[in-house]
Every structure is written in C-alpha cells, then in structure tokens.
Amino acid sequence: MDALKIIKTNNSDVKVYVTFGTTPTGPDSNGKDLIKKGAAAGLNADGWAVMPFDYDQGAVDMAATTKSAVDGLKNAVASAYGLSSDAAYRKVGFSSMNGITDSAGEKVTLANFRSMISYATSHHLARVSFWSVNRDRKCGSGTDPDACSGISQNSWDFTKALAAYTG
Predict the structure, then answer these.
(1) N or C: which end of the chain has fewer CB within 10 A?
(2) Distance between CA atoms of 59 and 112, rounded to whole angstroms?
(3) What's the number of domains the chain is made of?
(4) Whose CA is closest to 1, among 84, 81, 71?
C-alpha cells in the first residue's frame, strides 16, 4: 500500500484500482485488512474492486451476490476511510465474470450483468468491468472454454452492455 501511495502521489495521471476476490457479502478478513492498510498509508486509490465469482456455492443469483459483495466492500471502504455511503460507493466497484465461472453451477448471464450495471449506475460506482473480452462470445464446436463464455449469447453482448455504463 505504501508503494502504491508513492506511485499515485508521484504520478497523478496514473489510475490505481485495487482488485481482489470476495465473499458473497463483501471482503473477507484479508480484503478488509488490505483496505485498512491502504487507508492507514494514506493511499487515495481511484477505486477498490471485488471479483464477485468463484464462490464454490453452486448455482447462486450472481446479480444479487455481486450487489451484496459490493455493498460489503462499500461498508469496508467507508469504515476505513471515514466516508459517507455515497462517497464510498463512488470509490468501489466490481469485475464480474462473463458466462460460466470456475465454480460448478455458477454462471453470470447477460441478464445478471445488465442488472449489475443498473445497480452500478444507481450508486455511481468507480469501476465496472468483466473478466475477459476474449470470452465475450458463445462457444463453438471444439472451442477452448477460456475463449468463450459457455452461455447462449451473441458476440460482444457483455461489451455492448458495459459500453452503456457512464458511472
């Protein structure tokens, strides 16, 4: 965190987003500790973001768990930095998976992602993204699963949905 603060302080044009895994309700103790260390170091990150997937809980509502994970992140950032809820939402975000994740039964549909974007818009989140643009298409015969979403979709559907996000 001290090194990131030095980089940010000496290079004001550099954007710093700290991204890490999460539980469905927000950062675990390691994530909360990271945020506290950032605040203690005086790091003014442009944003803190969670990767809300790979929960290993089977089929879950990925839009709902993303929202609750970001709410938990917002609470941790608000607490560590002494920010209001509104100000903290503007310092947090997420990087979703697009399609099937590494956890059995877990998938982010386009409808899930659009719901996440609507939530992000209502809170003016600092960062909204998805894991991999090279996966933003349906799988063809013999396609490497890392090169496609594994769900029914048109090419670039997630990209097009994300392009509408303006904060």
Answers:
(1) C
(2) 13
(3) 1
(4) 81
Q: CATH code at 120?
A: 3.20.20.80
Contact assessment for residue 16 and residue 46, using Cβ atoms and an 8 Å cutoff: yes
Q: What is the mean pLDDT of residues 70-88?
A: 98
Q: State how far the Cα of 88 lies from the Cα of 83, in Å rounded to an integer.
A: 6
> Containing domain of residue 131, as a range?
2-163
CA dist 123 and 131 (Å) reads 21
Query: What is the pLDDT confidence band of residue 147, given thresholds at 50, 70 and 90?
Result: confident
Instruction: Scan for tokens 């818009």, then name that residue.
Output: 121
What is the percent of the chain with per-residue pLDDT over 90, rounded to a whole number?
Answer: 90
69 with 94: CB under 8 angstroms? yes
Residues 20, 27 contacting (CB under 8 angstroms): yes
